[in-house]
Amino acid sequence: MSDQATHIIPGQSAVSRLSELATSGLTTAVVVAVLIFLPLLLGGSWTFTLGLCFANSIGVLAVSLLVRYGGEVSIGHTFFTALGAYSVGVLDTRYGISLWASVPLALLLGVVFGLLFAWPSRNLHGIYLAVTTLALALAVPEMINNFDVLTGGYEGLYVATPFIPGVEMGLQRYYVALFMLVIVCLAVARLRLSRQGMALLLAKAHPAAADAFGTRRVWARVSIMGISGGIGAICGATLAFSGSTVSPGGFTFWQAIFLLVGSVVSFYGLSLTRVLIGGAFVTLVPQLLSASGAWIPVLYGLALLGMILLGHYMPRIRNAMNRKAEAN
Amino acid sequence: MSFWDSLLYDLFPLIWSGMITGCLYALGALGLVMIFKCSKVVNFSHGNVAGLTAFLVYGLSSGMLMSLSWGAAVLVALLAAVAIAFLIYSIISPLVFESDLTSTIATLGFGLIAQGVTLLTFGADIVALDLPIPRFAFSVLGLLITGYDLTVLAVAVVTIGALFIIIDYTKLGIAFRAISENPFAAEVCGLNLRSVHYFAWITAAILGVVGALLIVPTTFLSVTTVATFMLQAFAAAVIGGFASLPGALVGGVLVGVLMNLFTFYVSPEFSSTFLLAVILVALNIFPNGILQKVGGSRV
């Protein structure tokens, strides 16, 4: 799909974008500082929920990254989160190995499978990848349930091995998630400045120019899916550790759509504050609406549409108002 | 001898019933392709909207909402489908000309709303919705052919035939082809893109309702039935090459037969995984669909 989803806020000059980058660093630092001290004020259930928010934020980031750098939509990132979560769950329950070993494994698996699924659609429009990921999302619960020797089937697995021995588990589940989120956000910010990131953006925005500079399009398409898959797997690993259980219920087709909705709600933002908004939406809305289950799809649908239409009409309204202000 | 027996008693009936369901997947896939061909939007709400209308037929004919005759209920459902398609396209049409990716995600939002509305109105229960057709069956060359099979075949042939005639011979059909070929040139020639888009969306909605009503008797109707059915339609469209109408037809029949053989000979528990594998293999071998000639990659 040739696309401008990233230009959801058009009419932004380069200068204002730069100044935004500069302030976002400060805002991010303040947000992180607040989040570090938050468990001192809040009760245990809130720290638990916030931990899940951080984990889901990483997933939202993975989906947004794919849109921003690849111009592609994934409706199946639960595959990668399931991959990461079960890496942690299986290593933990079967072998008692903690995150030290399972997170790198999750990352590796995520990258490999991301490359694998992007490869067939390397030369095609993004819709093919979208449909493939849709099939992926529907296949995930089935695979988990049928490989129950490894995954524990419906019952799932319980993650209990501490990351740092001796520290209270409730706090670990919070701080490890926060740490992972910050690390991933920093890595994505680095990607933006790296040669790799520039090449990816060039291949997306100006394919012909990218060809002229020797950036291979196939390589760009496939590699961004690898990176996104790896981040998706880290989301799953964090989700497993912070949520303490891994079961098929967490990786349904719905969950995959929720991640995409979260990404749209955060306007495909890649900064820490933006993805936190998306992650919080994905985590908190089902909790608030848990009593009236049928309203969840309606609300998510409306949120999705609302944000998209807002993204479409806001810049126009703002431009019209600016013009009026200039005329006066 | 037993090999031939099993071939006769298992394989051919499996292929036959696979082809029948395949025709229905093709109806779903044709709707998706119609919309994609002219507006470049992948309509992820297709299955859920069709499911909602199937439930509407159930609600109107069973006495849950009203007790109309089956035909009247279908008519109301078709009108509802047309109205919903009209509404959806009207809301997203400003997005369609801006970004196909954004509008594709927007259709996902409508799918969620349709599913939620179905849940809120009709509940999460499973219901049975049959077709008012005479029950009979006869066997030809060892194949058991039922009244249902013939109905599906007849409806599919008539619907698809009518669609191809409209596209080949009517003014609207010519406009549709012109716009799918080159929207810019078509607009320069004075065609109204929006009205042709409306035509595609409404036709797709009608195809979706027909497909949903015909597939439901083979299973039960629940909130997810038709959406699952549409996944096979997506697979069919991918295999056929998302922009080809005859491809959607062939892809539908192919998916129907393959799925039937797989669930019988291997395992019904891995059907979504198998479908995923089919999509991945098809994309690798036929990147532009099975009916497309091999050529340079088009990006």
From TrEMBL, chain B:
It is found in: Cell membrane. It comes from the Bacteria. It is a multi-pass membrane protein. Keywords: Amino-acid transport, Cell membrane, Membrane, Plasmid, Transmembrane, Transmembrane helix, Transport. Pfam families: BPD_transp_2. CDD domains: TM_PBP1_LivH_like. One of its GO terms (molecular function) is transmembrane transporter activity. GO terms for biological process: amino acid transport. Signal peptide: none annotated. Its main location: membrane. One of its GO terms (cellular component) is plasma membrane. The chain crosses the membrane at residues 12-36, 48-66, 72-92, 104-124, 136-167, 198-216, 273-291. Belongs to the binding-protein-dependent transport system permease family. LivHM subfamily. This is Branched-chain amino acid transport system permease protein. It comes from Salipiger abyssi.
